[in-house]
Amino acid sequence: MKKMEENSRSKMRDSTTIHENSSSILPESTPSRSPRSTEMTASISLGNLSGKTSKASSSLISPQNGDSQWHKNSPSKIVSIKNWSISTYKCTKQLMYEKFGKSSRTMDTELENQIEGLRDTQKKYANILRLVRTMTSHFYHVVQTQHLMGEAFSDLAQKSPELQEEFLYNSETQRNLMKNGEVLLSALHFFISSVNTLCNKTIEDTLLTVRQYETARIEYDAYRTDLELLVQASSSETNSERLEKAQTNFERHKMDFEKLRADVVVKLKFLDENRVKVMHKQLLLFHNAISAYFSGNQQALEATLKQFNVKVRPPNSALPSWLEQ
Amino acid sequence: MKKMEENSRSKMRDSTTIHENSSSILPESTPSRSPRSTEMTASISLGNLSGKTSKASSSLISPQNGDSQWHKNSPSKIVSIKNWSISTYKCTKQLMYEKFGKSSRTMDTELENQIEGLRDTQKKYANILRLVRTMTSHFYHVVQTQHLMGEAFSDLAQKSPELQEEFLYNSETQRNLMKNGEVLLSALHFFISSVNTLCNKTIEDTLLTVRQYETARIEYDAYRTDLELLVQASSSETNSERLEKAQTNFERHKMDFEKLRADVVVKLKFLDENRVKVMHKQLLLFHNAISAYFSGNQQALEATLKQFNVKVRPPNSALPSWLEQ
């Protein structure tokens, strides 16, 4: 982490140099930054731009296959590094300015609330998943012990004529509980597996797009601020050229941002429908299976598993792998 | 252990010396003993005679309170040590001869079968106790997790209008299960505590008398063999004196043996009645509580606890100490 931060700081120094040569429209009173706040902002920017970073580094590595190719391609590589550095610098600056309230940011309260809600939902479902896993693990051991108790009571029933009846009915009860327990374990397994997919795959996939969208928003705002500053500056020939370039950059990042925003909106909508459908089914299964088991209703328990197409695990199989997922 | 064996071997060497001076009726062809078999017999003898050993050592230690008293009492102490050593030697020899079929032993097949049966019963009840403890421990954690799940589902019901109903009924089910679980835990606690007392106190107390009886049997047989050998030997004045002494010893050990035998018979009878009574009650409680809980019959579960005078533990108390007993 320390190394990463130092790395990003050195990148920032490079990009600062490039920028100072290519632009002079920055407000002269750049806010004095403490080393601490720089580190923080830089590491945030690096996290959000990780996609970009890996792109840049892969184009750096690939030409090393042949030395001649490296020399031939090097000017375009240098341009690529330069562009990436400028972008990183712009985004870091934008984040920092937003943090200190010196720059405006594009707000979409409704969408941001939805995203916040999704993150909260993921956290809460992960907690349910953890609890059901814990409960299932302990219940698995209860069932294993019931199996052993059924055998121990049966053995004692054979060898204790004076208490035969008492040992016999206890043995039968434990054996029945063990059988029903295996069926309930299959239902719990199904619940865990489905909620795990929802929580750690389906929701996670949408949150990946959300993170890309958040990065695109920062880039868009950075290029928008650039353009606005240029428009305010006095016009000259050099400036008009720059203005044109800034306008192009702004349009490109606006398009990227809007595309990702649309993606997020669509994904959130579909995810929400899917999530409600999956959770409705799983919560019903969980409730019906638990209720049937703990009211000793074997028929209802088996009917529930059939209704939800849950296969019953073979009894006495070793500690199932899904307990350790 | 190693030290104990060496200790007992050195005691045996002492007692051999004493015996060679005081008696010459041993068969000349004392079976050659490997160090291994000596060790085995010695350690058996030591185990059986532990009561005697501690007596002897306490009479050795007590006079050290005052030096003068030590010197005054020393002749009687030496006699006491001598007697103890002779007894230890006789018993060790008796055990060894029995092992190699060179000496007869007093058999009481019916009583010995009863004792063997009691030891087996203790082992089997201890196994049941261990299993119920394991089951209770896991079940305790299931109940704790149900408590947390009840809260987590309730929290989600408040915050998810789209799945409110599903979260609500799951929350209610878990809370009910948690409450009933606490009641079942009290019943399991009562079973564990009662069977633990039966197994590790009541039965153990009788088995202590059994071990004293077994030691007395060996001593009795040792003095009986001595007397028989003396009777067979040619008569002389020295011999008649010895015969009288052997007769007295034999009578004394016979009385001890018969008294302990009677104790064991009485204790076994009362223990058996007590054991059947306790186990009948506990097995009924265990079955009724488990059946009521796992058929969701809260009224029956509470009625069972009332019937057996079991107090319900306060809910959410820390991991009860009886799980670690």
TrEMBL record, chains A, B:
Keyword Zinc in annotation: no
Domain of life: Eukaryota
Region described as Disordered: spans on this chain: 1-74
Comp. bias (Basic and acidic residues): 1-17
GO process annotations (BP): intracellular protein transport; regulation of Arp2/3 complex-mediated actin nucleation
Keywords: Golgi apparatus, Membrane, Phosphoprotein
Regions of compositional bias (Polar residues) in chain numbering: 40-74
Residues covered by the AH domain: 106-306
Family annotation (Gene3D superfamilies): Arfaptin homology (AH) domain/BAR domain (1.20.1270.60)
InterPro entries found in the cross-reference section: AH/BAR_dom_sf, AH_dom, Arfaptin_fam
UniProt subcellular location: Golgi apparatus membrane; Golgi apparatus, trans-Golgi network
Gene Ontology terms, MF aspect: phosphatidylinositol-4-phosphate binding; protein domain specific binding
Assigned GO CC terms: cytosol; Golgi membrane; trans-Golgi network membrane
Low complexity bias (residue ranges): 27-39
Keyword Phosphoprotein: yes
Protein name per its UniProtKB record: AH domain-containing protein
